[in-house]
User: Fold this.
Amino acid sequence: MTLIDILIPTYNRCVPLRENLHLLNRQIGQNNLADQVSIIISDNASPDNTWETVADFAKQHPDIKIIYHRQPANKGLEQNAVDVLLQARSPYVMFLGDDDFLPEGYLAYCIKKINAATPGFIVPGLANLQADGKVVAGRLEKFDELALTHGFDTMYRYSHLGHQMSGILVRREELADDYLKHEQNRTPYLFIYFLAHSMLNHNGYYVPQFKVKVSMGNAKDWSYNQIGLLDAVYKAYYPFIEPLGEKKVAQLMLRFTIMHAYRIDFGKGLLHNYRTIVRASRNPAGFRSGLWWLLTKEYLRLRFKGELN
Assistant:
């Protein structure tokens, strides 16, 4: 059995997917990982040449373990991501966007860590891959690797990083079952749930030295709503009300909101944003007062810098 299944939910991006597969093949081949890593692709009924692309790659590289599944119709991002996870059989899964690219050495690093420490999760850094090919580094931490202890503190500090799925490695066992128990909280940001769940229950690593190249500007099969899909993000945290309590879940929600305040259009006014976000949330204890404080602080900061009309 392989150690890692790389899970690629895809839709209508056969060109970057082809590049991705060839880059993965190079990492797998150079590090002798063919018996350790497999690739599972779930095609969300793409109208382009995705099927032919994968078939050609599999024919050219028979030594690479690759499984291709095509949905009968476009089921949306969340369902396609769940379906590809349900097909996995390896102890660990790594999610990867079809147009995002793993850095050199990252797969080998993950295999080494699994064999040495059996972590519950590994979170990489990232870099923005712009349309012109320029790469802009992100997550500029002062460390290359950080060992993290399971529990609320790690969830609070780092689970928001699950908003970018690519490169996140987690233990597979019961992950899908645990997520599907909370039917009312299914969300396109299920990767935040996966990471938060792993951080609550397992030790792991945050390794910003390995920066996944995340493509910017490509057409997406979804769009933001008026509050930047914060309501969808919050759903990823609601299942933790039972084990953690409302106040801690409110802290997780507020942490994500301030870390990703770029999603909010402050030009619409402080009170408008506050009311809209509150209406879109379940309002766990402490959320409203905390939200008002952080929105006010951010609004005044932007006004002081002259970034609001």
Remarks:
- The mean pLDDT is 94.
